[in-house]
Amino acid sequence: MKELDLLKKDWKKNENSFEQISEIEIYKMIHKKSSSIVKWILIISILEVLLWTLISVCFNTDEYLKKMNHLELVSYFEALTIFNYGVILAFIYLFYKNYVRITTTVSTKQLMKDILKTRKTVQYYVWYNLGMAVLSLILGFVIALAYNPETSILNDQIANSGKIMAITIGVLLLTTVVFFVLFWLFYRLLYGILLRRLYANYKELKKIDL
Length: 210
What we know:
This protein has helices at about 1-15, 25-60, 60-65, 70-105, 110-145, 150-160, 160-210. The chain has about 210 residues and is mainly alpha-helical.
């Protein structure tokens, strides 16, 4: 909102020489900025899906399960993958609808509502992805411990020693927390800046609507 603030300051300094900036002009400026921000949210979400798809292709879970001779788990992971992509595509569709709605709206009150709705949609999207990341990590740990022959020695130690079990659980919890924080920081960097700018637009619209 630096451009808008500078414009207001410039008008105040030269109010005797220039015509007062109208609320309509401010609205048009905020409208344009909000539309651009939501467009970038849509673009980034699509690029993010492509990135995770590329990563999943490089690290093929199906091949890993086949090597461990547990083909029965492949279908479960395929169902989970289909569900996950379905939810993400639904979010992308909502981002697109929000973009179209914000681009075409002509009411200050409606634009304010659309901005808040877009922010909530993005927040739900981020929390869903964080939840799926934690779930995937936990499932990976469970499968590695329960089905991977290379961890059979560790399983025997866990079964025979409460201390080893406590250490293993502690390491897994710490790893989960670390990955959760890293993913949270990733999404905060990815969408946080855009959401803050969008909310700044909302506050400026609120001033107009008073």
